[in-house]
TrEMBL record:
InterPro entries: AAA+_ATPase, ABC_transporter-like_ATP-bd, P-loop_NTPase. It comes from Neorhizobium alkalisoli. Belongs to the ABC transporter superfamily. Keywords: ATP-binding, Nucleotide-binding, Transport. Signal peptide: none annotated. SUPFAM superfamilies: P-loop containing nucleoside triphosphate hydrolases (SSF52540). This is Iron complex transport system ATP-binding protein. Gene3D superfamilies: P-loop containing nucleotide triphosphate hydrolases. Pfam families: ABC_tran (PF00005). SMART domains: AAA.
Amino acid sequence: MSITVDTVSYTAGNTLIVNGVSLSVEKGRVLGLLGPNGSGKSSLLRLICRLRKVQSGVITLGENDVASISRAELARRVAFVEQQSNTDTQLTVLDVVKLGRTPHRGLWANWTADDEFAVEEALLRVDMLERAEQFWQTLSGGERQRVHIARALAQTPSELLLDEPTNHLDIQHQLEILSLVSKLGITSIVALHDLNLAAMFCDSLAVLQKGEVVAAGTPEDVLTEDLIGRVFGVRAHIQKSPVHGRCNIQYLMR
């Protein structure tokens, strides 16, 4: 497995946020992390990339306990894309993506051909190379998110974590972002709210409720009418989509 979470718990103050969570992601696959607001999705992602400290349990990347990996190595290995990142500094798209090379360079290191290749390749993969000299502030929300992903890809990570990457985007950009992530071939965990998008683009799903995993497996196994009612509090009808072949969820009025 590329990422394994084994009975991990995390408490903030007196509140148990993540409670004995276990899950795993195979190399090159995409895991969708689902759950209501406050279920622990964002906290779990931060535990995996060590922005939060695990209080019990073990997280491994490949064969290595994440707690034993140096900060420098972890920064080179794991890329984290948050919901939104803003800056008042006048930066171009190229400037933002170049920041992804920081973990690979010493304090006074010269820019290398490897750096140049990684940045150009990242911009190509998100279809933003022609916008490289455009200022960040002039981009749409969807374009900014693609640049964030390009910055992450410039790190040349082996694991990619994304926290609600489609939040506040219109449907076109939601589809574009998740289609892009699903084709990267990088081990990825994506926290999502939209169950239909998760079913379309994720290889497997894990559902959190009150900090615990209540279901995990393929989209077809996880997204049942019973689970959606219990966890999300809504009635649903599920059928196989004739378009993409994955399960499609229709929400019903009570």
